[in-house]
């Protein structure tokens, strides 16, 4: 494991500074959002002057406000209906896609035997005329060498089975092995 170059206390101090900075930025962002919201509301909905108005004027003002509210509610309802319609359509299309995936089975791929020359042609292109004869590159083994090894390795183990049986046979084998080593 690698050891860090910064001490634990320094890491802790840096982390606490980062958290404090993030907290300050978050608070500043919240204040900016509140200011933007207030500015937007001031632009779109200026404060209503109700002082000095007669009851008839107040009534007409209320009717105008109710008409605006109705228009906004209708727009909101239309938008909600469009969103609901689009979500249903998306769900239906997703279901259709899943159904289509299930209908078509992928075919089992078959093994194709390709020669080494064909592989080289596909990799290098038709410009290069390289033939790869793998059998020519194999090592040739001489028959005479293998036959000699076989005759040396294979001996008749049944010879002198009776002579080698018992303690006397083991002593003979031990003496024979000892004589070869010296």
From TrEMBL:
The keyword Acetylation applies. The keyword Methyltransferase does not apply. GO terms for biological process: cardiac muscle contraction; skeletal muscle contraction. One of its GO terms (molecular function) is actin binding. Transmembrane segments: none annotated. Coiled coil: none annotated. SUPFAM superfamilies: Troponin coil-coiled subunits. It holds the Pfam family Troponin. It comes from the Eukaryota. Belongs to the troponin I family. PANTHER family: TROPONIN I, TROPONIN I, SLOW SKELETAL MUSCLE. This is Troponin I type 1b (skeletal, slow). It comes from Oreochromis niloticus.
